[in-house]
Amino acid sequence: MSIDLPAQLVGLLATVFSVSSVVMKCDRRLRLAAATGQATWTLHFWMLGAPTTAAICVLTCSRQLSSLATPRMSPLAQHALTGFFYVAFTAAAVVTWQGWLSLLPWACAMLCNFAYGSLQGTPMRKTLRVADGLALANGGVLGSIGAVITATLAIVLNSLTILKLEGREVALPERLRTRLLRWPRLPRLPIFVR
Prior knowledge:
By secondary structure, the protein is mainly alpha-helical. It has eight helices and no strands.
């Protein structure tokens, strides 16, 4: 596996957006940061020559942006939107098919769409953790350093959140807990400001 430095740098930038979205307290900013991350992932995976993953990222970016309107939609419209993305993710995988490897990003997208469209709380996070495992495998197979870092962090954060939601104590070393509570102090970028 050769290292494509420009693609890896774009992937690390996508990691910053993706991980920063997790710590956003404002839902609007979270969705904008996540959409920006997906747009950056699109470029990254296109540079790595992974058309299925890039196409799925474009659709996931669209899904994130459309979720800005979801709270104002009727339940029927929300289900229709979720159904539309099931079809769109499947069409993207078929059109860009590259063999079994195309199944990883497709399955990840389908699980995320199901989790965000149908689940809440612990069941949603457990489903997302499975999807993050698929993203980790996909990133590893494609040689994406940023995707491996992002998926690993997502699995850890989801696991900690699940433990917290289930009422279990999470024992972290004091030094790590102090750093996690202070991190990150993100700059106020124009895209994230109301």
